[in-house]
Amino acid sequence: MHATAPQDPILLLAGLGRRYGQSDVVKDIELAIPRGSFTSILGPSGCGKSTLLRMIGGLTLPTSGRIEIDGEDVTYLPPQKRPTNTVFQSHGLFAHMSVRENVAFGLSLARRPREEIAERVVDALKLVRLSGFEDRPVDRLSGGQQQRVALARALVMRPKILLLDEPLSALDLKLRQAMQEELRAIHQDAGGTFIFVTHDQAEAFALGDRLIVMNKGRIEQAGPPGEVYARPRSRFAAEFVGDANFLAGERKNGRVALAIGVEFDLAGPDGPLHLMLRPEAARLHTTDKGGPEDGRLRVAGNIVEIVDLGPFAQCVLELEGGHRIEIAGIPRTMVDEIAVGGRVTASWPEAAMVDVAP
Amino acid sequence: MTGARMPSRRLRAVLLAAPAFAILAVLFAVPMLLLFVVSFWRVRNFALTPDMSLAAYARVFDTYGDVLVSTMINGGLTALICVGLGFLFAYAARFRAGRWGDALILVAIVTLFGGYLVKIYAWKAILSTDGFLNAILIASGLSAQPLDTLLYNRGAVIVALVHFLLPFAILPIYGQLRNVSDIQIEAAHDLGASGRQTLMRVIVPQCRTGLFAAFAISFLYAAGDYITPRFLGGGSGSMIGQFIAQEFSTRFNWPAGAAMSFVLMAASLLVLGLVGALFVRRRPS
User: Fold this and answer.
1) Which domains does chain A have, with CATH numbers?
2) SS3 category, B2
């Protein structure tokens, strides 16, 4: 389902690219964003995610491709003519204005009636839980409060698409998590389409109902967060959204032989392949009971490292031939039975392994 | 309570401010006070005589009323032009020059090395009847004979003063423009502001005090200047500073000079107060 375009998308990007001199910062972006969705764009710094967001908002012009918002071509429209609003990483509040004046800025430029402005400003500040702060100068607010004013300033415009460019990354962890919850609630209350750019994997998963992983100016994978996590299509995507084991192997006539010394059936073309296994998909056994008929692969090895996290533990297992795999989510009851140097068996369902491009 | 070894915060503040305060007190406040007293005295047989007379002040308005008004106009025009050009330059350096902004400001400051008298003589050379500008006008056929209206008037004084004072006007404006972040500009556009609206509602309001400082520096300097009008001013360009200097030196009429100084100061403060009321709006608190 991730491959097909959604019905009636609010945002459509076609062949979108941005080139600076000789380097493509963003290249060949094909993307359709469903109306009302909350999309997280996740990628390392310098992957082009902010540039992509700025092109949607009109703050950076593309060098190729097309941007459509709600069926209208806005590729070369200036930001003031687009139905988008942006919340910036460093809020960019107008330092000479009060909270009220900041939030009212866009509406007063749009020449809305005085009563409507007053009402919408009050509503927007209520939405970001800053009622009563109307007359404060913005430079006397805390970082989190300033970012919420910036959010209200954008939300009050009721943009078709709200663009959020790492708005929480300047805040400390506690505040960031609280703001994530608020953002989710605001998306539910206010409606509209949100696109959120971040380099923080946990934040991307906590916020978005859709996830886009970017790398080197291209979209690596797009889809629901759970699907991207469970079925990554590339090694980069697999590693960027979580921990992963990569098992090299060779396939011949539908039979895969892994370097760690196990074989199983998996349809596909002959040749070398790489399979990804999430550390928590494997289970640890001190005594081996099952047989090959239950659809699980089994390998024996020695524990070389244990990290006790409290409720769970994770460990590194050394297999025959020096291959190492990481296993996570080991339950508390098991932790007391294992020790570094101990011999154990690990097992996982064949279906848990995902074929990724090397 | 403070410890025995650590001076209190207040004492330290006093100690830090003391040298500057002493200089200001000795070199500015005390002479001012003396001059203020002298402005009520009289001169008899070339000797200062203590008195409580307002004669010197009356003389200022009788004799120098026109020059005083003319001085305010010259100073005001000079300051307005400096603020206007200074803002354009500072704006270009901050928002259009990219990473060369600071270099542009450095260039503006370097022009101060030219010196003050050198600039006056340069303008004399440019504007005189056999000067540079007339040579161009004649060579290009725009004028059949040299114009003698370029020099010795209000315009010549203002041009030379602007040339000298512009860097002083640029600096405070640029300093404040640097506090307006690029993100603020982008946010303004994002919220629907055109370039002009961004300028008038986001940029200018945030450099109000810089604009006022630029105006005040240029105005005070220009209004108090007596060298430029002496060399370039002629009739319409003459300013009260010249006459104050005369009263003190050749006429040895200290009370008159002192009274003129205080009237000039009061008039200048009045102009600055009016302009300040326009420039600087109280922020919400």
Assistant:
1) 9-240 (3.40.50.300), 245-356 (2.40.50.100)
2) coil
